[in-house]
Amino acid sequence: MSIEALSGKVFLLVTGASRGIGRQIAITFGSMLEEGSRVLLLARNKDALQEVAKNIPSKVKVCTISADLNKLTNKTKFEEFLSESLKETTPNAFNRMVLIHNVGSIGNVSQVNDIWDINIWREFYDLNFFIPTVLNTVVMNTFNSKIIKKMVINITSLFGIQAVIGCGQYCSVKAAREMYFKINLKYCSQTVYRNSI
Ligand SMILES: NC(=O)c1ccc[n+]([C@@H]2O[C@H](COP(=O)([O-])OP(=O)(O)OC[C@H]3O[C@@H](n4cnc5c(N)ncnc54)[C@H](OP(=O)(O)O)[C@@H]3O)[C@@H](O)[C@H]2O)c1
Question: What is the pLDDT of residue 177?
Fold first, then answer.
């Protein structure tokens, strides 16, 4: 099966690609790509990422990078990850760029008013909100040619629009993240932004 959004030479980046939904997206989308496409997979578990890579046809070059995204403090590491995955090619060699912001965690399941430690909030928002926003900026600046078709998918949740007891951190961050991508859509009319569950 081929779909237009994955046709031509595609650069595909999936965060949280070692298991769960990200793993399946990486394998399904990766298997639909044409020769000359590249895939960048990010997560902490290196072995699991390599297993995912083995499930993608060999005509597609897959770069797996094991990194704790929670520990990244600025855009530099993301720039390094992109240049690693773009070795011996350039962003302009691709017809399309597809970015899947999948990484996410459930967070602290205490009542929100019981979470006193600001560092618990910061750590959670780092992974679930700030990291996707910084990564998005770096990727957009790397693939900045108007000729490249760009699609960004944010894996969101029903909990981003529905308040659920015990999931205060998760609900609030999903709502914030969804709005961030809606705002992007207003600014970047040439990029397709989608919030998907
Ligand atoms: N599962 C559901 O029912 C459901 C429903 C609606 C929406 N969602 C959303 O879908 C997305 C994926 O959910 P899932 O259930 O597939 O999650 P999951 O199975 O827990 O997988 C999370 C992925 O993120 C990676 N990850 C976690 N912490 C990381 C860190 N600090 N640095 C780098 N990578 C990290 C994990 O890999 P490593 O451990 O190898 O780092 C893994 O690949 C999330 O955004 C979630 O909110 C899930």
Answer: 97
Query: Measuring from atom 19 of ligand 1, which residue has the nearest CA?
Result: 20
pTM: predicted TM-score of the whole model, two decimal places: 0.97
Strand ranges for 3-84 from DSSP E: 10-15, 38-43, 61-66
Q: How many domains does the chain have?
A: 1
| Residues of the domain holding 164 | 4-196
Q: What is the CATH number of the domain that holds 146?
A: 3.40.50.720
Ligand 1 atom closest to Cα of residue 21? 16
CA-based torsion, 5, 27, 79, 74: positive or negative: positive
Percent of the chain with pLDDT over 90: 86
Q: Whose CA is nearest to atom 6 of ligand 1?
A: 157
Q: Burial level of 33, CB count in 10 A (0-12/13-18/19+)?
A: buried
